[in-house]
Design goal:
Blueprint (H helix, E strand, L loop, with lengths): L1 H28 L25 H13 L36 H5 L5 H8 L2 H18 L21 H16 L29 H4 L16 H18 L21
Helix pairs in contact: 2-4
Length: 266
């Protein structure tokens, strides 16, 4: 009798546990018609990765990118054939058109300015993918406001993605830097040229002052002549950056006639 009583007690406890587990299972499944669904794996946002070290620079470039929809671009080699990209009367495109929950004022306040953003501008492997992404989003999301499908050529004289960009511009830069320490190789060299660096020896990596230590050397042979208007804009930009970034290493502030017998701008 004692063993029978113990067996009955054990059976009752087991039944009670089974019933409680069954009830708990039904409670978890209420409202879904079945067992509780597994927790959904969070999906990355479309703009994931934006908040990195380059984020403030991206704010600066985005402002320039959006401004170029209605006004001439301010890149290093702006297209001479630029025309406004928004349809006449179309609503302007702003930050919140793509970033719905953004605190626009707070975000724009992080713009570091052109000088601080310049190192990023000079990194082709940074700028090209960034602009490709922005142009693709612009064409996809705002085609109804655009005059045409936007391409790099709408804002750039030479497509930065093209290998010709490097084989055209880099040799010119190589000659420009070379003229700091050796007689210039332009079509109209200054007869009274003198070395422009305080130390006459050429720096081991002259490109690094603007482009960083990982910049590749210019190709040895390539097309090195552009139309006059583009050449003037390009050289004016380089002379400005040279005087700004390397003034402590220069004999004097550099001007066009230091390397050209006749000022090419005249």
């Amino acid at each position: 009798m004692k063993r029978l009583a113990i067996a009955l007690v054990v059976a009752a406890i087991a039944a009670f546990v089974v019933v409680r587990l069954s009830v708990a299972s039904r409670v978890r499944g209420e409202g879904s018609g079945g067992p509780a669904a597994p927790q959904e794996t969070p999906q990355p946002r479309e703009d994931a990765g934006e908040d990195d070290d380059a984020s403030p620079a991206k704010v600066h470039f985005m402002r320039k990118f959006v401004a170029a929809l209605t006004a001439p671009p301010e890149n290093l080699m702006p297209s001479a054939a630029y025309a406004p990209l928004l349809k006449e009367g179309a609503p302007p495109i702003g930050c919140v058109d793509c970033h719905k929950s953004m605190d626009v004022e707070a975000r724009l306040s992080t713009d570091p300015g052109a000088d601080a953003a310049q190192p990023f501008r000079m990194r082709r492997n940074f700028m090209v993918p960034l602009m490709e992404k922005w142009v693709a989003r612009l064409n996809k999301r705002h085609a109804d406001r655009l005059r045409k499908e936007v391409t790099c050529a709408d804002c750039h004289t030479i497509d930065p993605r093209d290998e010709g960009y490097r084989t055209t511009i880099a040799p010119l830069m190589g000659r420009f830097v070379g003229a700091l320490t050796t007689p210039p190789q332009n079509a109209n060299p200054a007869k009274a040229w003198k070395p422009l660096l305080r130390a006459p020896e050429a720096p081991s990596n002259p490109c690094a002052a603007c482009h960083g230590d990982d910049r590749e050397a210019p190709p040895a042979s390539a097309r090195t002549r552009l139309d006059r208007a583009l050449m003037v804009r390009l050289m004016e930009r380089w002379v400005h950056e040279l005087n700004r970034r390397m003034k402590d290493r220069l004999v004097k502030a550099v001007g066009c006639i230091d390397c050209h017998e006749i000022d090419p701008r005249k």
